Description:
Layout: E1 6-9, H1 25-38, E2 42-46, H2 52-64, E3 69-75, H3 78-88, E4 94-101, H4 104-111, H5 115-132, E5 136-141, H6 148-160, E6 165-170, H7 177-190, E7 198-203, H8 210-219, E8 224-227, H9 241-250, H10 266-277, E9 294-295, H11 298-306, E10 325-326, H12 334-343, H13 350-366, H14 372-382, E11 390-397, E12 405-412, E13 415-422, H15 426-438, E14 443-451, E15 460-468, E16 471-479, H16 482-520
Parallel strand pairs: 1-2, 1-8, 2-3, 3-4, 4-5, 5-6, 6-7, 7-8, 9-10
Antiparallel strand pairs: 11-12, 12-13, 14-15, 15-16
The structure holds 3-methyl-2-oxobutanoic acid (KIV) and zinc ion.
Amino acid sequence: MNNRVMIFDSTLRDGEQTPGAKLNAQEKVKIAHQLARLNVDVIEAGFPISSPGDLRAVQQISREVKGPVIAALARTVKEDIDCAWDAVKDAEKPRIHVFLASSDIHMEKKLRKSPEQCLKEAVEAVRYAKSLTNDVEYSLEDATRSREDYILKVIEAVIDAGATVVNIPDTVGYAVPKEFGRLIKLIISKVPNINKAVLSVHCHNDLGLAVINSLTAVENGARQIECNVNGIGERAGNAALEEIVMAMIIRHDEFPYVTGINTKEIYRTSRLVSKLTGIPIPLNKAVIGINAFAHSSGIHQDGVLKDKRTYEIINAELIGGQAAQMVLTARSGRHALRHQLEAMNYHLDKEEFEAFYQKFIKLADKKKEVYKEDLEAMLIDVSYTEPTYELEYLQTVSGTKTIPAAVVRLKKGDTIFEEVASGSGPIDAAYKAVEKITKIDTNMENYNLRAVSRGMDALGEVSLKINYEDKNIIGRGMSTDIVEASVKAYLDGINKLIRIISNSNNNHNHTTAAAKNKECC
Ligand code: KIV
Ligand code: ZN
């Protein structure tokens, strides 16, 4: 048996059935083009009878997207099949995908039809589809909860009627790997004409087993897997395309099968699907989640820096993603911090680095995770001039029924100053206390606050512009506490102002002294 496994992507059909994931025609076409770049074997573009919009989208995909087979879903009803054919007939490689339930519960309760009636309908539908195109897939909905003798009969009959692909869906995600593998093996060994069709599987993820069920089916003879990008789909979703493909690559020793997927397009496809469907990729999603390549613990980071293979089994570049991103924490050592800084092109000498490391540790104590953006912001901070006034202590009160007030303690050399003030808010109160201490009364031209990185505990960065006589000065400050960031920014501005004034005074004094010397010579 050959080891090539067909990847049937149903992101645009079953994936679009995810609550809230409705796509318009333009979006579906865009994703279909990307799926072609990903090199899937089949794109199930939609269920054309379900809406005129879906019909138009499948038609456009069929006309524009070259490479993969373009399939359209249909019930075993002539009107559905005609509509599906209308949608895919212009495709380079069209397929009609017909389905009907095979479990007692679905036939009895949902369809209210007997098994014999369903079998007859299935055969007639496949024959009709076959009269339109050669490539016809038949799916036995809820196959894993069906009687085995019944499904064996249906499979043989639909292949006789012309089905080229027979699909065994685990519609409600009920199967477990061992039993699903056994079912596939049984079909291969008991259906006499099975070699005339490709055996396919379609697993839902209600028990989180969709991927392993699909892989087990392949081990037992299935050669087409139906799956969706990011694992989206009805309820808990379908088997995730990227997980199946990467499992076959990374554990080729255990799953010695190949697909035609261009893995370098995985990352891009995943982001596009997430963006257009509006379904976020969980941070810890296998293969493509943001955290899948992030190392947080110090021991892991140290290991990865020495040799990536210590904690990384997938090279991010293989899926078209970026190189590993360090999320630094208080447990990250100096090695990880220096590596990150150098990757950002900041080369600090020993002393500078040590000073920066102490700053970093202070921040990491307050903030769980330190991102590249935080480091960048702190590095700008490092270049600040030596402060004249330093913030020693800050306490503010504010609230709906309180007069906002602040206690500010500043240090200048060895001297400590402390003042209390009230204001329209805690920041205004703190600024007034600073003015009492420094005796510099400035005009605030503008004030901006932004989050430097991600999360509720993100660093807040304040940048402001103060005017004093004819001077305009920019001050910057950062903290996880926005009042503290505001005071630091204000002090930064005041310290710069003091320096400018003292420099111009010194220059003035020097010029006068030089003039005097000249006079006396
Ligand atoms: O889950 C399912 O049974 C399906 C079929 C239409 C293939 O999506
Ligand atoms: Zn499904």
